[in-house]
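Consortium newsletter contribution from the modelling node. Members have asked for a concrete example of what our holo predictions look like. Here is one, prepared for the 4'-deoxy-4'-aminopyridoxal-5'-phosphate complex that several groups have been discussing at recent meetings.
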Amino acid sequence: GLAAERIIYVNGDYVPESQARISVLDHAVLYGDGVFETAVAWNSVVFDLDAHLDRLFRSLAAINLRPPHSKAEFADIVVQTVRRNRMRNAYIKLIVTRGANGEPFLNPEGCVPGVICFAREYLYMASPERVRDGLRVKTAAVRRPPAQVLDPHIKSLNYMNLVLAKLEATAAGADEALLLDINGHVCEAPGYNVFAVHGTVVRTPWQDILEGITRAWVMDMAGGHGLDVRAETIELYDLYTADEVFFCSTAGGILPVIAVDGRRVGEGVPGPVFSYLHKAYHDLLASGESGTKIDM
Ligand code: PMP
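And here is the predicted structure:
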């Protein structure tokens, strides 16, 4: 028989993937002009959907795009999309585009915003071996843009900076890239926030980064566990000398980093702070108490 097609939400309709259409003149296609969120559902619960929608609205405000829906309506679109695909564990993307006005020019006047939501069976961004054994990362030559150029707080569709960093890392045989800011401080990775552990001190960069939902959870959880959590400026030296380094993101959970620029981190294996947080995160997701319930 025919495999059931996935259902995608596009501009008011839930349609089979092969019928999902947007204009080629949408400014998202022409200029990367739009914003998005990546969320996860585990055990039919969307993890911290409120935080994702708050961040989406901040991104929309920053790019001067009036939200085409209320937060409640966006939440319903996310829940419906997962429900209609009958997925218990899902990787979910919610996208708001500037839209099209019939002209291929930068002028956004008359553009009608577009909304897209799709879901996939949950997949890790990294392979299971990497999650288990840890990532080898490499500092990219390309830097994260400062707020004066394109504020990384905005979760914009323009990911070229991160794509270029990822290409560099891949070309060099590393698993992931690490980006520095314009002054050489550690920033983040393509799709992840970064943490460094020295003893009981857990540090994460604070400037020119996307403020990750997972990062916020890690900071809370590590603080609650008696660790000294600090959002502050971090240098490459701090990663090279750390007991542990880990990345975190919605689409990957918490991932150990075992090497940075060819230097072994700590013992070169996933460490105890990582292991504690990784288990706590998965226990929370599995418990079904992490957010918005999807009734099937
Ligand atoms: N930084 C960047 C640049 C990202 O794209 C992501 C993924 N959304 C993150 C950090 C992690 O954020 P979150 O925990 O909200 O997924």
